[in-house]
Amino acid sequence: MKHIRTIVLFGATALSSAAFAQETLYVAGYSGDFQTMFEKEISPSFAAKHGVKIVFVAGNSSETIAKLQAQKGNQEINVALVDDGPMHQAVQFGLCDSVAEAPVYGDIYDIAKLSAFGGKAVGVGLVATGITYNKNLFEKNKWPAPTSWNDLTDEKFSKRVTSNPISGTFGLNTLVMFARMNGGGEKNIEPGFDAIRDKLAPNVLSWSASNAQLAQMFQNGDIDLGVWGSNRAVALKKTGFPVEFVYPKEGAPAIVASACVVAGNKQPALSQAFLQYLASPEVQAKLATQGFGPTNRNAKLEASLAQEVPYGDEKLSKLVNLDWDTINQNRAEWTKQWTRTVE
Fold first, then answer.
1. What is the pairing mode between strands 161-163 and 79-82?
2. Which residues form the signal peptide (predicted)?
3. For the chain, where are the alpha helices, taking DSSP H only?
4. What DSSP character marks residue 109?
5. Quick one: how far is CA 236 from the chain centroid?
6. pLDDT at 137 exceeding the cut of 80
7. CA Rg, the chain, in Å?
8. What is the pLDDT of residues 154-200, one digit of tens each?
9. To 5 degrees, how large is the angle CA 136–CA 130–CA 310?
10. From CA 194, how far away is CA 202, in angstroms rounded?
11. Closest by alpha carbon to 189, among 342, 72, 6, 298?
12. Cα–Cα dist 334/193, whole Å
């Protein structure tokens, strides 16, 4: 009888341990201040509600996609958060599962809705690509604030402009916009290359792949203006440096921070719940503190924060979507051409 009682007690202990074993959700996303905010402001509420531990896997978009490809068939990451260009690649590679229907997705702006990603991802944050300029310097020289992509080609800015090369999103967006403005576009990129080589390149001091270096060039007085993201401009402005961000009249390419449930991951139900959580108005407002405009039209921002991000009908009307399927098919060849003829 004593022996039987021991077995029963052991079985009860094992069942109890299994019942209270905490599940883990691995979320991949941007590093730096974003990770700090995410772990402090976003993860805890979901973790407490669902009784799950959330582990943040930091990396840029390219690094995250590389991890998903390397782990295909044995995925450790449950939810991935990357820029829309890489996200379209992830969808094409079969790395994202279909998004389960939920009411919250009906409140997402068209530029970030599920159909933009073939039902495999949803946009959770907006960044505009536009022109950042040194406000004090422009006022000192009595120059009007830039309003057009063509302002970057003004001769008075010779060697006073910067941008990412084509390997960076801002540089790629610049190429596409100059193509569109000169009779081409994603499916006819040559007019863009011609304009970059003949009109923009003579004004560029350096094609900087580093956003930190680009900020340093502004602070050192090496440049007057450059192509940059709205979030980057706001971050520099918060240091006290007098920059302003402009949405060019021809349109500001949108960078859509996008999230998907990783195909074949071990926590599909929790992953779907977390995706819905990211799309909620409350979380959208928190993402805005890191420079991401809300994609949920019901998100409410304080006035000062609303000025810093793509928010409201006026700003969103200036955002333009790019044809990422065409871009991703041609980007390797465009990169070779850029290296040969632009840099």
1. unpaired
2. 1-21
3. 2-19, 33-37, 43-50, 61-70, 84-92, 135-140, 169-181, 190-195, 211-219, 230-237, 268-278, 281-287, 303-306, 313-316, 324-341
4. -
5. 18
6. yes
7. 23
8. 999 999 999 989 988 899 999 999 999 999 999 999 999 999 999 99
9. 100
10. 12
11. 342
12. 9
For residue 177, give the nearest of 153, 158, 156, 160 by alpha carbon.
153
The number of residues making up the chain comes to: 343
The three-class DSSP label of residue 56 is strand
CA separation, residue 92 to residues 121, 138, 291 (Å): 12, 44, 28
Residues 106, 107, 109, CA angle at the centre, nearest 5°? 105
Contact 245, 132 (CB under 8 A): yes
Question: Could you read off the pLDDT of 51-92 as tens digits, one per residue?
Answer: 999 999 999 898 999 999 999 999 999 999 999 999 999 999
pLDDT value, residue 167: 86
The token duo for 25 is 């959700």
Spatial contact of 130 and 227, defined as CB atoms under 8 Å apart: yes
> Quick check: 8 pLDDT over 80?
no
